[in-house]
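Fold this sequence, please.
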Amino acid sequence: MIFAQAKPQTARYWEPLPNGRLRCTLCPNYCRLADGQRGACFVRQRVGDEMVLTTYGRSSGFCIDPIEKKPLNHFLPGTPVLSFGTAGCNLTCRFCQNWDISKSREMDVLASSAAPDAIARAAAEWGCPSVAFTYNDPVIFLEYATDIAEACRARGIRTVAVTAGYINAEPRREFFAHMDAANVDLKAFTNDFYEELCGARLTDIQETLCYIRHETSVWLELTTLLIPGKNDSDGELDAMSRWVAAELGPDVPLHFTAFHPDYKMRDIPATPATTLTRARALARQNGLRYVYTGNVHDADGGSTYCHGCGQRLIGRDWYVLSDWQLTPTGACKACGTPCAGVFEGPPGDWGARRQPIRI
């Protein structure tokens, strides 16, 4: 159902300053706003003496995707996920691969509108066991995302956050209390990269990752988009994978995906498949058990293997599953070694389909 534009919703996480401005405390940008101004994310705005979320109840569109496209390889494999986003972002990544949505400053991109319960109901009707907040970063529409998550939980539907993790401690606790799974972009492993190309800090992302992994029950996977000459050196990949293994643990899946020239970095060539293969091998040598390649055709790099005996547990060709050698409890059928993840009986058979829908 498409209905009239939703009114802005009162936002949380802001405070008045002595100089008369309001400071947004949602993320480390700490935008200080005069009346009528929007934050760096463009969707949180000061109106009078309060902050509002201008995109509450509005979406850039709804689509049913394979869960592996998020990417999540260890969370309900083979199942469909109802995916949607809004507009805006609190980072300024020059290489953004979804820039037409996340960098949008035009509200007419938000053509679809739906109340939280309508989204949960649509997921149930389409047989989707989960809803994903994706395409742009959901932390900036926290109020809308958490309301949707509550509506989904009432119907037994899980929620997934695809995020860069750039959020402060207090809103972080609220946001991830509503999530069941997350794929976090670990964009690089140097502060220079984050500051120069993303307008953020690596340490803030590391704090979010450690919080999710050690203080929540959220299933966590990581994605790093490898950009030639920017974040793909052996030294940086070695440091990153060692940190993940030591601080998050060897069971956190890591996806290395291929960059293509886009947005403000059209002068950089696409990532060679050999770079992804090299990164995967290095990360596995450093103790990570589940390392994947993405945005390239690589059946071996997309498949899941038992870290106990080497058995291929889940075969993947793009988003189509083949082998399934897991017991109902998620253990290797050959040797009994548990495979980390959220597995519930046999895999889904959604495959590679992409189904746009209207709510």
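The chain has two domains: 9-53, 59-302. The radius of gyration is 20 Å.
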